[in-house]
Design brief:
Blueprint (H helix, E strand, L loop, with lengths): L7 H10 L9 E4 L1 H9 L7 E5 L11 E6 L15 H19 L5 E4 L4 H6 L7 H9 L5 E5 L4 E4 L6 H7 L2 H17 L7 E4 L14 H15 L4 E5 L1 H9 L5 E4 L2 H12 L4 E5 L4 E5 L16 H15 L1
Parallel strand pairs: 1-3, 2-3, 4-11, 6-9, 7-8, 7-9
Antiparallel strand pairs: 5-6, 5-10, 10-11
Helix pairs in contact: 3-5, 7-8
Organism: Citrobacter youngae ATCC 29220
EC number: 1.1.1.262
Keywords: Metal-binding, NAD, Oxidoreductase
Amino acid sequence: MGDPAGIGPEIIIKSLTEGALSGAPVVVVGCAQTLRRIQALNITPAAELRVIDRVAQAQFSAGVINVIDEPLADPDALEPGVVQAQAGDLAYRCIKRATALALNGEVKAIATAPLNKEALHLAGHPYPGHTELLAQLTNSKDYAMVLYTDQLKVIHVTTHIALRKFLDTLSEARVKTVIQVAHDFLRRVGYENPRIAVAGVNPHAGEHGLFGDEEIKIVGPAIQAMQAQGLNVTGPCPPDTVFMQCHEGMYDMVVAMYHDQGHIPLKLLGFYDGVNITAGLPFIRTSADHGTAFDIAWTGKAKSESMAVSIQLAMQITRD
């Protein structure tokens, strides 16, 4: 469900009652009472909420949403659009329970609604976001954040870290890991010989050391090592052109060095239908590629396209 004080509950109901996902084999892990409060506002299509204890009890039909209830400590005290510890704790518990279902083989994939990092921290769960939390819950070491649209696909070497600290954490080993994760992920979703471009760190990819030497000392050697292993990888590429080249079909995915380097071009092209994927987990995890949008929470204004696409993509990947 994500943070129940955000738009997560609303976009979940909309996604599962509109279009192709009505009646789809999807089970919601979240607070049933919060979903009922959303329904009482008449901002979502009508649906029957069926509370179940186990995935095996789910019955999938149009107009029905199966819910494994993970209750709030005080559901009546939940305030829409407000950072609250109990909301952050619910988001954590939902992820933990959904992860257990996936690891046990009861579900094939997880699609997550957005959580609020401040609420998560208030609840005593000091994770930067879904990606790091899922990695900890699954004991995954080699993982990375992917942003995915039909127009552009980007994987990140680093994500939720201050830009001042980014260069101190950048390493040849991490770049090699992310290139390998990118290759394996693209193979999993159907690319026979993935073409991967690696963005540089500095303007013009350093211009042969004139604007920084990270490309010479770190990124370049990582690329060469992965090329020696037979991977189809190119770079370091100038960051101001490589995303356009990937968008036009020259590459299948770009390896971005830090959060905004990869997020800005992808959100420009696919803000409403972009999907966040954690690659490198033992199961597929997708997510709507936006935040909790507290400013419009529980108002009926939230767009559900990204949530719906994330569910559809999870189903498509696991079906194939």
